[in-house]
Specification:
alpha/beta; 6-stranded mixed beta sheet; 4-stranded mixed beta sheet
């Protein structure tokens, strides 16, 4: 356990904290109020008016901290378990002091502000393995060891959600889970039987690394005389896979003339085929919760699913004949100017593209067609960017502090995400700030991604990467998937 210290011991640092807080607030006003029209409505021609209205709303909306009210928790300890198998990649815990690193200092300041505001201490426990076991043991012992758990949705939290170890987040009335500092799409897709156990939001900076997106090499676009205003296409709802396919035509080339395709040597129009990003991005729901929230049904097979798979195959195969090649090689091809488009996660910008010489844009994953109601940013469920509350921690302090941490992070840390994930060594197109808001405001995850009923996710991966017909492939796993859904429903409903 690492103790950050009680607020009274920070008197010499509080001035610095408040100064940094003011700077971050100013950054939030300048960067966080961009227009982020995520729906494909008919009024997209009035982009400037929408931007102005969005800015005005940003400055006049109620302050969530004020709404939560004043609370004095008399020196209580709010403990966060960071169950992170890869802490070197993900920052969710601040150092014991400010270091000059923007994310650390923002986290440090956030915690200092909350400690002083609520008269409490925020402690962190870091576990690089067995984080799920630690939660189970704490719940069984009823020792109230943790108020909040940050972990992976896949491989940790999804199991805890089925064995009674996690609290129903809906039982914490202080959490406004449909607001932008939480994933509003997860609020819609991960509620079942009046219960929700897992979500993600600005409370963890790792959230800024998990979202599916599309990178566009704008230097290559200029080289190939591609006349497209990519940002305006997103704004107007015309950023579709049909457009991606059209723009990719003629780019793929066997550069060394050896008759073999390799990401290390050749040129590609479109790379990074991951079904877990592409299928949800096209608004295909593999499983669907009924309107009354009581039934989960396998809905993978319908006319739309067939059409989506056929379109993605049509777009990718001519422009990426070797979809299954190494992940690292894929990102290298984009970085080395041998791919026009790369569909991956925002983490690529932070980790793999930091020293890329050419300029690029970050856009949401393209829609299936213009009729699709909005963009979806599917998430990497194996990153430590998801939060849950142990079943022993359903109390006012847990709810108030968790909500306050998330809201403060949204207002003051999200602007830093643009620097974390986008502005590296070169100054990129500032419009990507607006595009990242579109990405982050539309984080999406469903039970299908969390539990992979019957291995159905692999089915889509196989069909997209190797070809074939989706209907027959889904049919082969339907019985097993439906059996696992029934078991899941029984366990979830028993909590």
């Amino acid at each position: 356990m690492r103790k950050l210290g009680k607020p009274l011991k920070r008197s010499m640092k509080n001035t610095l904290s408040l100064l940094l807080c003011a700077m971050l607030l100013a950054s939030a006003v300048s960067c966080g109020g961009s227009s982020t029209q995520t729906e494909t409505g008919d009024d997209t021609a009035e982009t400037e008016s929408a931007t102005q209205a969005s800015t005005e709303t940003e400055t006049t909306e109620p302050d969530r901290l004020d709404e939560l009210g004043a609370h004095d928790y008399s020196g209580s300890v709010y403990t966060v378990l960071d169950a992170d198998p890869s802490p070197e990649l993900h920052t969710n815990i601040p150092a014991e002091e400010q270091t000059g690193e923007m994310v650390n200092d923002a986290l440090w300041t956030r915690d200092a502000v909350m400690e002083e505001r609520y008269n409490l201490t925020i402690d962190y426990v870091e576990k690089t393995n067995d984080g799920a076991d630690a939660v189970r043991s704490s719940v069984l012992a009823n020792d109230h060891a943790y108020n909040l758990v940050i972990g992976t949705a896949g491989g940790a939290l999804e199991g805890l959600a089925l064995d009674g170890s996690l609290a129903n987040l809906l039982d914490l009335p202080q959490l406004s889970l449909d607001q932008k500092w939480w994933s509003s799409l997860m609020y819609d897709s991960l509620r079942f039987h009046d219960a929700m156990y897992i979500t993600s939001g600005d409370i963890t900076p790792t959230m800024y690394q998990i979202a599916a997106c599309t990178f566009v090499n704008t230097d290559l676009a200029e080289k190939y005389n591609i006349d497209c205003d990519f940002v305006e296409a997103v704004r107007s709802g015309t950023w579709t896979w049909d457009l991606v396919g059209t723009l990719s035509e003629g780019i793929t080339q066997d550069l060394n003339g050896d008759g073999q395709w390799a990401y290390m040597d050749d040129m590609f129009g479109n790379i990074g085929c991951f079904s877990s990003y592409l299928i949800p991005g096209c608004a295909v729901d593999i499983c669907t919760v009924s309107d009354d929230g009581k039934t989960l049904t396998l809905t993978a097979m319908n006319e739309r699913t067939v059409n989506v798979c056929e379109k993605l195959q049509k777009v990718f195969y001519p422009n990426n004949p070797i979809m299954r090649e190494s992940n690292d090689f894929t990102k290298s091809a984009f970085k080395e100017d041998r791919a026009l488009f790369l569909t991956h996660t925002t983490e690529s910008a932070a980790v793999h593209l930091r020293d890329m010489e050419s300029d690029y844009l970050i856009l949401p994953v393209a829609k299936y067609d213009e009729a699709q109601s909005g963009y979806r940013s599917a998430v990497n469920v194996w990153a430590t960017a998801y939060i849950s509350v142990p079943s022993t921690a359903v109390d006012e302090m847990t709810g108030v502090v968790t909500e306050a941490l998330a809201y403060w992070s949204y207002k003051n840390m999200r602007p830093l995400a643009f620097d974390l994930t986008y502005k590296a060594k070169t100054v990129r197109d500032e419009r990507s700030i607006e595009m990242l808001d579109v990405v982050f405001d539309n984080l999406y995850c469903s039970f299908a991604e969390l539990y992979d009923f019957g291995g159905i996710s692999s089915v889509f991966w196989d069909v997209l990467s190797e070809g074939g017909e989706i209907a027959s492939a889904v049919e082969k796993v339907t019985t097993k998937a439906e059996t696992e859904i029934a078991s899941f429903t029984e366990k979830w409903g028993a909590q």
